[in-house]
Amino acid sequence: MGLFGAILAAATLLVVMVAVRSQNGALDVGVVPTPASQDAPSIVLVSLDTLRADRLGALGNTRGLTPNLDAFANEAVVYERAWAVANITSMSHASLFTSQYASEVGPVGQAFRLSGDAPTLAGVLGVYGYETAAFTGAGHLSRAFGLQRGFKTFEAEGSPLGSLWHAIPKALTWLDDRQSNAPFLLFVHGYDVHAPYLKPSPFGMALAQPGFRGAASEAVHVPAGTDRVYGDVYFRQDTMNGFLHERARSRIWDHDARLAVQEETYRRRGESVAFHEEDARFVRDVYDGATAYADALFGELLQGLKSRGLLDRTVVVVLSDHGETLWENGRFGHGDSLDDRELHVPLLVRVPGLAHRRVSADVTLLDVMPTLLELSGATAPAGVRGVSLVPSLMGQRPPAQEKLFAEGCTRMISLRSPEARLSFSGVGADSPFLESLLSTAAIDGPAFEVDTTTDDSTIREPLRQELLGWRKNLSAGQREQTPADPAAVEALRRHGYWGTP
Ligand SMILES: [Zn+2]
Q1: Position 290 pLDDT exceeds 60
Q2: How far away, in angstroms, is 320 Cα from ligand 1 center?
């Protein structure tokens, strides 16, 4: 029957046995499920923070940055158009783990914390008898932000921006120390592609111009250094973070913002230096070095799984939580935009027994949880927003998802359709005023931004209505303004997450 046949048999058996369902057909929380079958697959879920999709050879990059990911992709199903639904770590992982939008499960923003009682991937699998463990690079994936919910073991190290270098040995030791034969969910995460981009030799500078000296050579290794680049200026002083973040929140090239930067640059002359195209190229090259570093570490993890004989019975999923803007709009980083650079992410799914294929349809990270639950024979809880990708893993065309929504950590939401992307900024996705502002703001005013290759005058209004309809359909019941732990917030603040108090 093979592993995949066994997985489907286990899934069918469990679905038949779980009889209590809510009105929409999904499993009610609280139903006692059947323990996982011996044949249920284990799962390794790898999150390579901040990795842009276009850096993978498997997704078209020609620079040879990702030999391990590319070799893995040759044995996996490659989703060419996978999208994050949020642009910062905490919110995106919350959507990954709950298959709900972040604004449904916590307060939107840098201080997001998973709140309410939405079931998580780890929590549901735990109920089905899975052993669950997470080893993360801390930061937004530390306990302060609530994303440990459902994991029996949760260790965050390297605060605030730890590496797979920290996480992988712990994950492998956890595998070696397991006493039972129960299937497991193992989540491994690292900030290896996240700023500061400069990573250890030989990867860090390997692709950058030798001997380069300029503003960028400082920016790539100072915490949050690249966040201090604003157009053609690099601000040396850490205190500039707050100012820049304030200005860059929703309209990076807004006229007033540009003017304010010019004034501030003049006022702080001596603390700022010119930033040129060659600086930007140098930063991008160092980012690519970080990508190669993350790839090498991923190769270590894969080798660890292989040498333990786990690859024949383990589903391995590799993804990133969001991408990164690399000066395309005069900025570096993520969290300020909902365009392709920040939302297009790698998504590779390797299921033993299933052939490599490429899927060109749009999918989102919301789909990962229902996919893994179906593969495990678990029933998805009510409220799940994503759809299972199991049909597309098997070569069937996935259901069309023509309208893709996303939320920014700043005051921004967006809708992507085949023709255009419309973003609305001004208030956060969890604001009680969002619906009234969204429905009344001037459609050709500064609150809306349209990316399209065609005439946008006729598509703006229909897209606004779609965005409004999506918003009204979101559950507001679980939104709860639970503040994150002040110490964790302060640690991230030092790395530029909020700027100055
Ligand atoms: Zn992230």
Answers
A1: yes
A2: 7
List the single range of 8-12, 297-301, 313-317, 353-357 with lowest mean pLDDT: 8-12
Q: How far is the CA of 439 from the centre of ligand 1 (A)?
A: 31
Ligand 1 center–CA 94 separation, angstroms: 11
CA of 9 from ligand 1 middle (Å) equals 36
Q: How far apart are CA 22 and CA 343, in angstroms?
A: 33
Count of alpha carbons within 13 angstroms of residue 293, beta-carbon side: 27
Average pLDDT over residues 326-347: 92
Sign of CA dihedral 85, 88, 91, 97: positive
The residue among 301 and 403 whose pLDDT is bigger is: 301
CA of 488 relative to ligand 1 center, distance in Å = 16
Looking at residue 326, its amino acid is L
As a whole number of angstroms, the distance between CA 348 and CA 358 comes to 9
Contact 88, 140 (CB under 8 A): yes
CA of 467 to the centre of ligand 1 (A): 25
Q: Are 13 and 34 in contact (CB under 8 A)?
A: yes
Q: List CB contacts of 236: < 8 A, sequence separation 6 or more.
A: 218, 228, 271, 272, 273
> From the CA of 88, how far away is ligand 1's center (Å)?
5
CA 190 / ligand 1 centre spacing (Å):
9
Judged against a pLDDT cut of 50, whether residue 213 lies above it is answered with yes
Lowest model confidence (mean pLDDT) among 48-57, 60-69, 265-274, 280-289? 265-274
C-alpha of residue 360 to centroid of ligand 1, in Å: 24
Which of 203, 164, 125, 205 is closest to 371 using CA atoms?
A: 125
- Model pTM score: 0.89
Higher local confidence (pLDDT), 165 or 9: 165
pLDDT in tens, 217-269: 888 988 778 888 888 888 887 666 666 666 555 454 566 777 777 787 777 77
- How far, in Å, is the centroid of ligand 1 from the Cα of 34? 35
Contact 187, 135 (CB under 8 A): yes
Rounded distance from Cα 291 to ligand 1 centre (Å) = 14
The rounded Å distance from CA 317 to ligand 1 centre is 17
Asked whether the beta carbons of 454 and 421 are under 8 A apart, the reply is no
Please tell me the distance between residue 323's alpha carbon and the centre of ligand 1 in angstroms: 8
Answer for the pair 315, 42: CB distance below 8 angstroms, yes or no: yes
Distance 183 CA to ligand 1 centre (A): 27
